[in-house]
Amino acid sequence: MKIAVLGGTGPQGKGLAKRFARAGVSVVVGSRSEPRAQAIAKELSEEVPEGSATIAGLSNADAVRASDEVVILAVPWPGHNATLNGIKDHMAGKILVDIVVPLSENDPKKVEMPPEGSATEAAQAILGPDVPVIGALHNVSAHTLNDLNAAINCDVLVCGNALEPRKKVMALVEKLGVTAYNAGGAQSARCIEAITSILIRINISKAVPFTHAGIKIWAPDHL
Amino acid sequence: MKIAVLGGTGPQGKGLAKRFARAGVSVVVGSRSEPRAQAIAKELSEEVPEGSATIAGLSNADAVRASDEVVILAVPWPGHNATLNGIKDHMAGKILVDIVVPLSENDPKKVEMPPEGSATEAAQAILGPDVPVIGALHNVSAHTLNDLNAAINCDVLVCGNALEPRKKVMALVEKLGVTAYNAGGAQSARCIEAITSILIRINISKAVPFTHAGIKIWAPDHL
Question: H or E segment at A200?
Answer without folding.
Answer: helix A189-204
